[in-house]
């Protein structure tokens, strides 16, 4: 594939994009995702967002059993040729990973909201994670801070199963037991 500049990507009349088309995008610090052939771009995130993702990843890593692995963005999930997702934090079965991607649904995907991504995280991406069978989907609002947990029910639909804000503890068992306090995810950035 020919490398294209940002002004000519995607080429006019090229139709829906594929995961392979993403290889031609610049390494410019933005996160590029593909949902059903439609390119989505996210700018670099702010300090609160990054602090939460880092601290959450660390907490999950500390509790993670050997059959799973925890990774932070950017790392690609490729459940099909027209979808590439890069959640802020993900947990997958160790046996499902390749060196470059996760070609299966993660067992947990976490998105930290930001003004530029909140609508997609709460709607579009949530629907895609549900469709591909991601058992748990967490959304973190860095402003409260608050963690909302969605889990697939018996019909394959997400149901909100827990929410904790501020100093409230959150204890989950899926994909493995872990205890979190939203304020603790901000570290020194938490309001006194």
TrEMBL record:
Q: Cite a single Pfam family from the UniProt record.
A: Uma2
Determine if Hydrolase is one of this entry's keywords. yes
List the InterPro entries: Nuclease_put_TT1808 (IPR012296), Restrct_endonuc-II-like (IPR011335), Uma2 (IPR008538)
MF terms in GO:
endonuclease activity
Putative restriction endonuclease domain spans which residues?
A: 22-177
Q: Which domain of life is it from?
A: Bacteria
Keywords linked to the UniProt accession: Endonuclease, Hydrolase, Nuclease
**Name of the molecule in the record:** Uma2 family endonuclease
Which source organism? Answer: Amycolatopsis suaedae
Q: Lineage of the native species?
A: Bacteria, Bacillati, Actinomycetota, Actinomycetes, Pseudonocardiales
């Amino acid at each position: 594939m020919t490398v294209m500049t940002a002004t000519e990507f995607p080429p006019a009349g090229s139709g829906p994009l594929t995961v392979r088309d993403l290889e031609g995008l610049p390494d410019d610090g933005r996160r590029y995702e593909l949902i059903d052939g439609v390119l989505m771009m996210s700018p670099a995130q702010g300090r609160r967002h990054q602090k939460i993702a880092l601290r959450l990843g660390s907490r999950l890593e500390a509790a993670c059993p050997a059959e799973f692995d925890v990774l932070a963005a950017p790392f690609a999930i490729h459940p099909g040729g027209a979808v590439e997702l890069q959640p802020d934090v993900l947990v997958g079965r160790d046996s499902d990973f390749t060196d470059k991607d996760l070609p299966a649904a993660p067992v947990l995907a976490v998105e930290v909201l930001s003004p530029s991504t909140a609508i997609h995280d709460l709607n579009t991406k949530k629907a895609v994670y549900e469709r591909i069978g991601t058992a748990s989907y967490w959304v973190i609002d860095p402003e409260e801070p608050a963690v909302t947990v969605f889990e697939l029910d018996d019909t394959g639909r997400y149901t909100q199963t827990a929410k904790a804000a501020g100093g409230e503890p959150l204890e989950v068992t899926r994909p493995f037991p872990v205890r979190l306090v939203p304020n603790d995810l901000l570290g020194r950035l938490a309001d006194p």
